[in-house]
Amino acid sequence: MRHMAFDRPVLRRTGGLLFWRLLGTGRGASMTFGADLRRWALLAVWRDERAAEEFLTRSPIPARWRREAVETWDVRLAPISSRGRWKGVEPFTPVPRPPGHAPSPAAAGPVAVLTRASIRPSRLTAFYRSVPTVDRWLRAQESCIASVGLGEWPLARQATFSLWRDAAAVRAFAYAGREHREVVERVRAHDWYSEELFARFIPYASAGTWGGADPLAGLVSPGQGAPGQGAPSGSA
To answer: Is the pTM of this model over 0.70?
Structure first.
């Protein structure tokens, strides 16, 4: 927990790091009132692959993860869409494709989703009352490979990260289920958030374990290159 404070000066001095957030996590697979004090995450957006590699191999932060953690998992992600802001910033630039370029084969494969919101204080009670309903719907999705609730500030600044077998599974969760659709309608009608962000990514490399296994094992080709520059890499 102390490194949530002590790692910040190191990250500020890290070359090629364009945007970053140190994040705590909830217990289980979604947002909860209780925090899991043994599980932490770093979300990082890099100028290029070389900067990310330099950090992972030479920075004291991942060196300490390898030394002290029971397990670590790292995933590299190429943004394919992003809507909204994170503390006034648009952190993810979708990877461009040349005109007429065929869609990447990865587009039919796994998709990662990041959602983030700053919840208005007057809407906190309504927000957390809605969490169990959405959580039940999420748990019913066989195509959701893994998910975790994240937070940069207790209760009011919350995020989720999830891995899905394909984009169709993401759409089915977002629009086909009455539970999730009704919560989204209440969010819009009653203006729950002062700021929000929704982003989708193609995972193109992963290493380590999350809950004893790599959730993307067999789904991401080993050694597959980055679809473009500026791909964010998150580590937990």
So the answer is: yes
